[in-house]
Amino acid sequence: MNGTAAPGQEFWGSKARPFGQAGAARKIAAKPEGREKTMKKTIPGKLASIPNFLFLAFCLLQFLPTKRPGEATIYLQIFLALVETAYLFHYFLRKETANVQTSGDLITIFYVAIFLWELFTTRLDFLDKLLFPSPEFILALLVKEIPAFLTGLVSSLQILIAGYGAGALLGISLGLFAGWIARLRRAAIPLTRALGPIPPTVYIPYAIVLLPSFKLSSIFIIFVGAFWPIFINTMNGVLSIEGRIIESAKVLNLDQKTMLLKVVLPGTLPNIMTGATIGLAMSFILLTAAEMIGATSGLGWYVKYFSDFADYPRVIVGIIYAGIVVTAIMYAFDKLERRLLRWRRLDAHHIK
User: Taking the model in full, what pTM does it have?
Assistant: First the structure.
């Protein structure tokens, strides 16, 4: 009262701070220590991760005598050393914890599969040699067959790009119109329910008879497989646009072309990409099936041709190569999708 603080006031005045300030002070005080602890834990933790232990186990496995000396090569050891090096670079340089964990999980699965494959073939010779060749032999054969694979890849991509591109172009265009114009939409919905679920492979006999070449028949089958998922998702995407966005655009007296290209198409883009992803996966399945039926080149033809001669090492190599190609294309497609829909990540960041 007379200018001197009471004992209790002095205590609270010196110790107590507003809640936010106290929390911030605790965070600032704890941050260097916590960061130091994190560094102490993470640096040895990175080296002691499960993928590194599995890589070490594979190295130790090499000291066991081989029971398939004719299949022994150095390709697998070199390949795994490159994989481990890339993994370590990724582990130490990337900052996103989720990405590092995901790459570690994938590398773990890969190492376990390679370890078991090597153990039960080369080291124990437990599996049939004709059906299950060793990983060293398969990797060496994969390198040897690269020229043939590149030739087949060109043939397969020509068919895939033509069929999928036509399906995507027509599916997006018609889907936008059908979703925007109510009369077209009422006519299109029964057609999608009747024709959409039909497997495109049932059209193969008619396509081979009516079209002049097998290549055109394959393009047509892939077109059908890609068209329906893209068309249906695009049409549903137009219907899912918020009404206030459409009403706001109508206030500006936009013409139909501007409305479709500047308002409806961007609003439908997430659904379009969903349909495009489904259509691309369907196109790969149909491409392989079509090539296995009547093609003279391509990835599907390679597997079918050598399976007829019971050349199972080349069948395995063909399957692995097809998986690599599909993974690479889907990865590029995912990057494109993330680029086109980057505004969704920005919105999620602002919401947080």
Answer: 0.76
